[in-house]
Design brief:
Number of strands: 7
Number of helices: 6
Helix content: 25-40%
Distance between the termini: 39 Å
Largest sheet: 7 strands, mixed
Strand content: 15-25%
Length: 197
């Protein structure tokens, strides 16, 4: 039986993003979002819906099969024009995004692509490099969500390194929140939410 009142990490992530997107209505600027881990495109489509007709989503993934699935999903939902997909690692975010761009928010869903080779996983060094490159581009009150999975080989080490890195961010410049279930025994997950002040 699932809890009635405590949201799952995925539900909580969507709640955060819906709150973030509501603030975009207060500005004339078109929102730009980044999906650092496109996978099969579920989060990419969610972000494309949130940014609206004027906004844009830039997505990164190293696996062509996932990008093809994502493109098909976006086209089926008539959202493909709102998204640019890069067949590249998310650590290339600063090189790939247009110069002078201001990012309203970014989403990372770490681990491996469901239904694919589980040996191809996100790694702490590239994820941290991506986050370090992205934070200077983030708007004031922009948000980054990082969903960490630990149930696969390498997942716990990646999660530990990313959480340790996030703990070093200046309190003056950022707030870092964490949402998880400390009594979950198998396949622990953590959600980091970083807001730039």
């Amino acid at each position: 039986m699932r809890p009635r009142h405590i949201p799952s990490i995925l539900q909580f992530t969507k709640l955060i993003w819906q709150q973030v997107a509501a603030s975009w209505n207060d500005t004339e600027t078109a929102a730009v979002a980044v999906d650092g881990t496109v996978g099969n495109g579920h989060d990419t489509l969610f972000l494309a819906e949130l940014v609206g007709e004027k906004g844009h989503v830039y997505g990164f993934d190293v696996q062509a099969s996932g990008l093809a699935n994502a493109q098909e999903r976006l086209e089926s939902a008539s959202m493909a024009e709102r998204v640019t997909l890069f067949h590249d690692g998310h650590e290339k975010v600063a090189e790939r995004l247009p110069e002078e761009i201001v990012v309203a928010g970014a989403m990372y869903n770490l681990g491996y692509l469901p239904g694919s080779d589980h040996a191809v996983i996100t790694r702490a060094h590239t994820t941290i490099a991506s986050l370090q490159a992205l934070l200077p581009m983030l708007a004031a009150n922009g948000v980054v969500t990082v969903h960490i999975y630990t149930g696969h080989e390498g997942g716990s080490a990646e999660g530990d390194e990313i959480q340790a890195w996030a703990a070093t961010l200046s309190w003056k410049d950022f707030r870092v929140g964490r949402y998880d279930f400390p009594n979950k025994e198998l396949n622990k997950e953590h959600l980091l939410v970083i807001e730039k002040l």
